[in-house]
Amino acid sequence: MNILKRFLLMFAILLVLSLVSCPDPGGDPADDGSTAPTAGEERTETTGSVSFDLRYVPAGTFVMGEDVEITTPVVTLTGGYWMAETEVTYELWDEVYTWAESNGYTFANQGREGHDGIIGDPPTADKTEPVTMINWRDAMVWCNALSEKQGLTPVYYTDSGQATVLKVVTDDGGIDPAYGDIANDCVKWAADGYRLPTEAEWEYASRYRDGSDWTPGDYASGATADYTDAGATGLVAWYDLNSGGSTHPVGEKNANALGVNDMSGNVFEHCWDWTPNPPVPYDPGPLTDPHGPDTGTRRPIRVGCWNYAASYLQCAYRRYTDPWTEVNEYGFRPVRIK
């Protein structure tokens, strides 16, 4: 075989190999050069005796606050992330909380099973209802505890040196790092552990359809019409007109395009960002991987609840709470980047 034929044969082999190993165009490049999961891909995690599912949210760009807010910045999220498929159930909360209390963690609140369970009691037949009666600080340190329990790197630290894992929070009124009110520079954003989503991450996942088409901001997450359409809204959300005056087991309503349930309704969900009081419009942007202001007095909760009207279910709707406030309308869902 002459040199030309050898060259053509080698070229053909390399071409075939490159085609065989070509990544799925739906995936983002992963940090290690491999192909990242596809949009909505499911992964099951287990901690102790409790399993929970995550869904993959790919990187991309969208218009935040569209149809609802005064300013609507173009936001780019440069990396994909995994988001809990449902709100944290009382069963999962209790599994991690019990472990954490024996491993140096101190919470402000014990948590409640759904809207009317007995605070701090063991899980019952209603264990798959969302945990409530926990504040923003509780949710944050619970994420650290879950990370540590699973051998991951915690995300939240007591100060900007990021040497001491945040394990103790209180329900004291007022803003103070001693109570657990940390700033953006206390967050190890590249860590592989669990954390609260930023507002941008939360809204991006709630409105995602295919990466180019987005659920309008005045729809409930996963709905086919705006929030005034009771039929379309009732398929995806528990709210005052259909909840019967109570929380419900997670995952009973239709999921959105990513396979994520209850992003509108059942309970409001804590997010990371600081915000001033009174709140101000978004930075007009464009923004890349925004984490919110460096300081503030309140934290966002998104969106809708078992005893609130349909207007609160809009994907782009914003509401705020003090970081020490716990009520039977607030829960959360974690995210992680790996």
What does this structure look like?
The protein has helices spanning 3-20, 90-101, 136-149, 199-207, 230-234; strands spanning 42-47, 50-57, 60-63, 74-77, 81-84, 112-113, 131-132, 268-270, 287-288, 299-302, 319-321, 330-331, 335-336. With 338 residues, it is an alpha+beta fold. The protein is globular. The strands form 4 sheets. The protein has a 4-stranded antiparallel sheet. A 4-stranded mixed sheet has the order 11-10-8-12, covered by helices on one side. Strands 3-4-9 form a 3-stranded mixed sheet, with helices on one face. A hairpin with a 2-residue loop joins β1 (42-47) and β2 (50-57).
Short description:
The protein is an alpha+beta fold and 338 residues long. The chain is built from five helices and 13 strands.
Tally of helical runs: 5
Major sheet description: 4 strands, antiparallel
User: Terminal Cα separation, in Å?
Assistant: 49 Å
Fraction of residues in helix: 10-25%
For the secondary structure, the number of strands is: 13
What is the general shape? globular
| Rg, alpha carbons | 21 Å
Largest sheet, spatial ordering of strands: 1-2-5-13
Which residue ranges are poorly predicted, with pLDDT under 50 across at least 5 consecutive positions?
Answer: 1-29
Name some characteristics of this structure.
single chain; 338 residues; alpha+beta; four-stranded antiparallel beta sheet; four-stranded mixed beta sheet; 14% strand; disordered N terminus
Q: Topology, please?
A:
Layout (H helix, E strand, L loop, with lengths): L2 H18 L21 E6 L2 E8 L2 E4 L10 E4 L3 E4 L5 H12 L10 E2 L17 E2 L3 H14 L49 H9 L22 H5 L33 E3 L16 E2 L10 E4 L16 E3 L8 E2 L3 E2 L2
Parallel strand pairs: 4-9, 8-12
Antiparallel strand pairs: 1-2, 2-5, 3-4, 5-13, 6-7, 8-10, 10-11
